[in-house]
Amino acid sequence: xxxxxxxxxxxxxxxxxxxxxxxxxxxxxxxxxxxxxxxxxxxxxxxxxxxxxxxxxxxxxxxxxxxxxxxxxxxxxxxxxxxxxxxxxxxxxxxxxxxxxxxxxxxxxxxxxxx
Length: 115
Prior knowledge:
The chain contains five helices and no strands. The protein has one domain. It starts with 5 loop residues before the first helix and ends with a helix. It is an all-alpha fold.
């Protein structure tokens, strides 16, 4: 019985096949999980909290937030994030905080425009 070289058994049988012979077609070993390389930590707690915070509110609440955000010159996301982070609705008198939000938006836009 002729002996088979190991390299021949592992080599792909068809050059058009994406995986070599002996490969099970699974994910690559260098796969990075969605939580990154630093360990799981509180990843799933944060993911659940994010989902519940941005869950679809009622149409009335969305309309209220959109009107309020437009009056203040903010986006819906910026206004909602401020409610979630600070626990209060922004008012016209919150001029300094609104200016900080707009300044942060401008700096994000400038960073995104850079190559």
